[in-house]
Design goal:
The chain is α+β, with helices and mostly antiparallel strands. It has helices at 4-32, 48-56, 62-70, 97-105, 108-122, 247-267, 282-290, 315-332, 336-340, 348-354, 356-384, 404-418, 434-446, 449-461, and strands spanning 75-79, 84-85, 92-93, 125-131, 136-141, 146-149, 159-165, 170-175, 179-185, 191-193, 198-199, 207-210, 271-275, 305-309, 393-396. Among the domains are: 4-50 and 69-245, no CATH class; 270-310, no CATH class; 403-458, no CATH class. It is flat, with a radius of gyration of 33 Å. The strands form 5 sheets. Strands 6, 7, 8, 9, 10 and 11 form a 6-stranded antiparallel sheet that branches. It has a 3-stranded antiparallel sheet with strand order 5-4-12. A two-stranded antiparallel ribbon has the order 1-15. The protein is built from 14 helices and 15 strands. Helix 4 (97-105) packs across helix 11 (356-384) and helix 6 (247-267) runs antiparallel to helix 8.
């Protein structure tokens, strides 16, 4: 294992990269959660009501785009392609079951969605598997709090540094292929080892990277302009997620909404005017403004004139914002009706066609995230001493907008026309949980009691064979 000085040196080298990555990801975080900066067109000397309208004009679409993908990326099972026969008792055993039990013990049914959400929004996320008192400890880490260095092996990092913020202090963890080193920041600003290293049995760094796509040019990224919100020109060495490409459109939508609110507040109603007359007291002027019928004295020269300004037409602002939302839907492959809200009497087939683009992107994300989840399960198997087979894979929940009757009809035709065993199609039935499928499989293996009774009665009804001749 590394010495205290060597661990501190490695950690401080990684710390610079972590802080630069965090500076670029903090604006992305604000846009994702709808706390982006106010529209820059608002002057500092603007009245309080104008600044309040600017605050209200932040119509967040980034969160909708991220949720549209994350809500379709739900892991509901992990199993091997085929059970294996145990050498001791000669029974079929699911080798992936112990790893799935560790998943359940860590409440990963809920927590894995945070990993998927961070990977979708930022373009990267991490999972860590460490030894615990009662078994493996699995948790996700945001890329704002972790940086990892990779070399020739794209699956396992050489080293990784994690920032763990707590209520009163911040702990830093350095990972290598032998141990985990806890560190804290000293007064000098450097990280120093504060406790004994904790060895682990993996032989690799226990950190798994989640990426929506594999960027072959990531290590050779050219210089770019200032990243949104940072004000500094830096090389962007980070895979882009769903939020960063939408930042310019999000700003446009906020500005359009701000202009709409200002026009609606100040000039969306008709305003009367009087030329050549001013009331001496403010009270009389207010009564005149609120009256249905005005009685205005004529000037001596007879030049008093009364008229009104027409209200501002808001349709242009509304159409412009709707066009920006449609472009954002096209750019992110999000169904238009999820951003605009126009959904009127659509059949199941029409809804599936409207969501076809999003489904293709979801399938692409399932390929990448699925491999990362399977890699995490392999770490669990190494730790508990029960390696999972290479053909084990995660099973994703089906969230597509297909009619249930059409799905069941298609599965029935696969059984009748192609002879596929019904037990092999249970994963295709929407809405079935892992427990439901295991219970149904057990019932299928036991057989239908009525069918077994009918077969037994048929056997009893058959005539007994004649004895063989001596």
């Amino acid at each position: 294992m590394l010495s205290a000085q060597a661990a501190a040196d490695r950690a401080n080298q990684l710390l610079d990269d972590q802080e630069r990555a965090r500076a670029r990801l903090d604006p992305v975080r604000r846009y994702w959660k709808g706390r982006q900066r106010l529209p820059g067109i608002v002057p500092r000397s603007a009245p309080a009501e104008v600044r309040e309208m600017a605050r209200m004009s932040r119509v967040n679409i980034c969160d909708i785009v991220v949720n549209a993908l994350v809500q379709s990326l739900i892991v509901q099972d992990y199993r091997a392609a085929m059970p294996e026969r145990d050498e001791d008792d000669a029974e079929l055993v699911d080798r992936s079951l112990p790893a799935w039990q560790a998943w359940q013990a860590n409440r990963m049914d809920k927590r894995h969605t945070g990993i998927n959400a961070a990977a979708v929004a930022y373009g990267r996320a991490y999972a860590v598997v460490l030894p615990g008192r009662r078994g493996p400890l699995m948790r996700g880490v945001s890329p704002r709090n972790m940086v990892a260095w990779y070399a020739d092996d794209p699956d396992w990092p050489v080293e990784a540094l994690e920032r763990r913020p707590f209520t009163r202090s911040t702990l830093w963890l350095l990972y290598d292929d032998e141990a985990v080193y806890p560190l804290e920041r000293a007064r000098s600003g450097r990280l120093e080892l504060v406790d004994d290293p904790q060895p682990h049995p993996y032989g690799v760094v226990p950190v798994v990277r989640f990426e929506p796509e594999d960027d072959l040019d990531e290590a050779d990224e050219p210089q770019s302009d200032a990243y949104p919100g940072t004000g500094a020109s830096t090389p962007v060495d980070l895979v882009m997620g769903q939020v960063a490409p939408l930042v310019p459109l999000q700003d446009q939508i906020d500005v359009i909404t701000f202009n709409l609110l200002v026009a609606q507040h100040y000039s969306a109603f008709r305003q009367r005017w009087v030329l050549g007359w001013t009331d001496a007291t403010e009270d009389k002027a207010m009564r005149a403004a609120a009256s249905v019928l005005w009685a205005i004295p004529m000037n001596e020269d007879g030049t008093t004139r009364v008229g009104e300004f027409g209200e501002t037409n808001l349709a242009g602002y509304i159409d412009s914002r709707e066009a920006a939302l449609k472009y954002a839907a096209t750019l992110s492959q999000t169904p238009v009706h999820e951003l605009i809200g126009e959904l009127v009497n659509l059949s199941a087939e029409a809804l599936a066609a409207a969501e076809a683009g999003r489904d293709r992107r979801v399938d692409e994300r399932k390929n990448g995230f699925g491999e990362s989840h399977e890699q995490t399960f392999q770490l669990v198997g190494r730790l508990i001493g029960k390696p999972v087979p290479d053909d084990a894979q995660v099973v994703w929940r089906d969230t597509s907008a297909r009619a249930f009757a059409a799905t069941v009809d298609g599965l029935g035709k696969l059984v009748q026309m192609l002879g596929i065993p019904p037990v092999e199609l249970l994963d295709r039935v929407p809405g079935l949980t892992q427990q439901d499928r295991r219970r149904i499989r057990a019932r299928m293996e036991q057989g239908d009691p009525l069918t077994e009774l009918a077969a037994q009665l048929d056997r009893q009804a058959q005539p007994a064979p004649e004895p063989a001749a001596a």
